[in-house]
Specification:
9 helices; 13 strands; single chain; 313 residues; six-stranded parallel sheet; alpha/beta; globular
């Protein structure tokens, strides 16, 4: 069996990865004593005994964990921000292009994408790759996420019965335009200009919608909504984890919590032939975090990438 160690198993992402392993008979989980979770010597021992180690840690701790690797056969799957644009690290969004999947399959260092960045890149990477927008297109990204994306402290704040009433409403943040996902959003999609990003945290646990508006007269090619839908459908053809919906799939509204508990995402195009809205909907803890991490592991092991994951219709 494949030996797996989760460094940071008590965080939100680590716990969700652990849950997805509960019914798998093909892996052996290496567990650390609770009082030794922060002891470098004990962590190093388990990391180097593993075949694959998941890092579910803050950036500095993830960088430290990588420095503890002495066994050349250990694969690292890092869910932090630390290595997403680093040389030698595979970016863990297999569907973006064939080279991404090959890098995950053959790499020993894999960086799991950020949740917002997953939605953004699922839309913008194909637009840039196929020459529909220029690398310097002034993109705006508007996004809504459940509060589980805020980590353990944020979750506790939202689930506190005495919480401030402000938490009843969506709250926009990253007001200084310095969100930690912006670096990979720009780099992975091939942009030369940093996009404008307006994320919101909302009063529901899981789920996310990332939206990209486009002006048709600013595209490099004359394209209708139908043309764009066909482009996305062809780009993601055969990919079970990314579903491109037909035009008119949502009649009036797009809910941001509909994909809670799922590990796939959907892309949808709405608007009109002058102003076009492209959305990516998924679970911020699924395709946006732990589900993506497990998918990367499955690819690296050469098994069905959907093993142990929940894909809807």
């Amino acid at each position: 069996m494949t030996k797996i160690f989760i460094d940071g198993s008590q965080g939100t992402t680590g716990l969700k990865i652990f849950e997805r392993f509960e019914n798998r008979s093909d892996i052996e989980l290496l567990k650390i004593d609770s009082d030794k979770r922060k002891v470098a010597k004990e962590r190093a021992k388990l990391i180097n005994e593993s075949d694959i180690t998941f890092l579910c840690l803050p950036d500095a701790a993830s960088i430290e964990a990588v420095s503890l690797v002495k066994n050349d056969n250990v694969k690292i799957i890092d869910t932090s921000t630390a290595h997403r644009t680093s040389d030698g690290w595979a970016y863990g969004f297999a569907e973006l292009d064939s080279c991404f999947k090959e890098n995950i399959k053959h790499g020993s260092r894999i960086a799991v994408p950020g949740c917002y960045a997953s939605g953004f890149n699922s839309i913008v990477y194909p637009l840039v790759k196929h020459g529909i927008i220029s690398a310097d297109y002034p993109l705006t990204c508007y996004a809504m996420s459940g509060y589980t994306g805020a980590g353990k402290k944020g979750i506790a704040q939202y689930e506190d019965e005495t919480r401030d009433t402000e938490l009843d409403s969506p709250r926009q943040y990253a007001l200084t335009q310095q969100h930690k996902h912006l670096k990979e959003m720009k780099a992975i999609s091939g942009l030369s200009r940093i996009p404008f990003f307006a994320p919101h945290i909302c009063d529901y646990p899981q789920g996310m919608v990332v939206s990209i508006p486009l002006f048709a007269d600013m595209l490099n090619k004359k394209m209708s909504m139908a043309d764009l839908q066909q482009m996305f459908a062809q780009h993601y053809d055969g990919e079970a984890f990314v579903k491109v919906r037909e035009l008119g799939y949502s009649e009036n509204m797009i809910g941001s919590n509909n994909f809670a508990g799922r590990d796939d995402m959907e892309i949808e195009i709405n608007g009109n032939d002058d102003r076009i809205l492209i959305t990516s909907r998924f679970d911020n803890l699924g395709k946006g975090a732990s589900g993506a991490a497990i998918q990367c592991m499955n690819i690296a092991l050469g098994i069905d990438e959907a093993t142990g994951l929940n894909l809807g219709e």
